[in-house]
Automatic annotation (TrEMBL):
Keywords from the named record: Signal
Protein's name in the database: CubicO group peptidase (Beta-lactamase class C family)
Keyword Signal recorded: yes
Native source species: Sphingobacterium zeae
Signal listed as a keyword: yes
Position of the signal peptide: 1-21
InterPro entries, per the entry: Beta-lactam/transpept-like
Length: 107
């Protein structure tokens, strides 16, 4: 009887260990798959830009002298990305998408 009970306990321990390993493996695989999806969503192709947004931003730049970088995203996917104006007007240094800005606010 004790031997039967001992065999049952060993089988139960093995089954739970295998189940935990497969669950962890599935979680890791799911995380890797999600990372791949997320990384492809961050890739932006200017040929796929939203034409309405592009027209609006170009009009804002030409009529109201908008200067800056624009990034519009929805559900983690980049819909529009562009730069307008100068990083340094006096030196005629064009703004680049990876230029950094100092931000400030007043209370």
């Amino acid at each position: 009887m004790k031997l039967f009970f001992l065999k049952g306990m060993v089988a139960l321990l093995l089954a739970s260990t295998v189940a935990c390993n497969s669950k962890e493996k599935k979680q890791k695989e799911a995380a890797i798959a999600q990372a791949k999806v997320d990384s492809t969503r961050l890739v932006y192709n200017a040929n796929n830009a939203d034409l309405k947004i592009d027209a609006f931003m170009k009009n804002l730049h030409s009529k109201a002298a908008f200067n800056g970088n624009v990034l519009i995203a929805k559900d983690g996917k980049i819909l529009y990305q562009n730069t307008f104006g100068w990083a340094n007007y006096l030196k005629r240094d064009s703004l680049k998408i990876d230029d950094k800005f100092e931000l400030a606010s007043r209370f």
